[in-house]
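I'll show one example:
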Amino acid sequence: MHIIDEKIKNYLEVNRDKDTHQLILKGSPFKDIPIDFLIDQINARKRLAKKLPSWVNIDEIIFPPQINLEQTSSEATAKYKSKLLTGKKLIDLTGGFGIDSFHFAQYFQQVFHVEINTDLIQLAAHNAQLMNISNIRFINENSIDYLKNITYKTDCIYIDPSRRDVNKTKVFQLSDCTPDSIENWDLLASKTHQLLLKTSPFLDLKLGLKELKQVNEIHIVSVKNEVKELLWLVDFRKPSKTTIPKLKCVDLNGSKTSTFEGDFTLEKQATTTYSNPQKYLYEPMSTIMKSGMFNWVGEFYKLDKLAPHTHLFTSQNYLENFSGKVFEITEVMDYKTKLIKKRLKSMKLNVVKKNFPILVKDLIQKFKIQEGGEDFVFFTTCGGKKIVILCKRII
């Protein structure tokens, strides 16, 4: 493992904004440091400046190659999930670069960071020392073998299985990930009271529930309204047959956290009312869209929906605490090409389409819309017909 000393720190600082392809051609200026290592450090600091600001600001932190950073949690999501579990001891079966382990260490007396990749675990241990974290034990071993060999039942286990197969191709199904949580479910249940499983944000919720034997809560987590993590929380101490999983939708946006809760039973039983666009338009946050709780969100906030498959809501009176974006409608038009072309000509707009058959890029081109500005235009369907809604975002 290469250490970032003063000469390397100076190199990274001088070259942080330079073309890395040109740097590769020049090669490393240091006999004992390969150029690949230097490029990995420069690229990681560029890519992770917003995702891991505290880490990037420590000059001596060592980052692994890009492929080992693809699944790395952000500081925001790692902090969120570290508060979901309780107890004294936690095993992170997929320790990796260490972001999650380091945050769990803030709330647990002992964290066991298990990682089969020797290079990664050396980096994680080095970085833990830099950050004065002393309650993580680093174990360089296959996670399932380690789990089989321990003789005690821990408080919590966290798993973020690798979503690449032996050919380095991305996979999304639980049984294709490593370690395979489905195959090893009984082993997991025998070794912990609580399990937190992170999966691809693209995994279908109902498919996940079919594959997993017991789930108490599903946390759908977004950062600035972009879904980043799907977290499955299991408490093996609670009876599985009576469990109706809670759906928790969370958006992390700096110091502001927006939340919405429900479950599939509430969604099924919810009463939906429909209406043409009124004075205000509501677009649920992305985590609610992922959850599929479109009817429950309307009943909960007492809002009318535009159409069964149009997941936009409306009201005459302003609703302040809605979990999503709120707009004040300025104009509603039927979707007639000549009318729309004339009305939108030369306007600067943010274009959104919901339950509409034309792509946003094609709408922009067709109506010669300039992207940006403060106003919005929604192309959508209401009452069986296509409509266009002009509106302003309420912040």
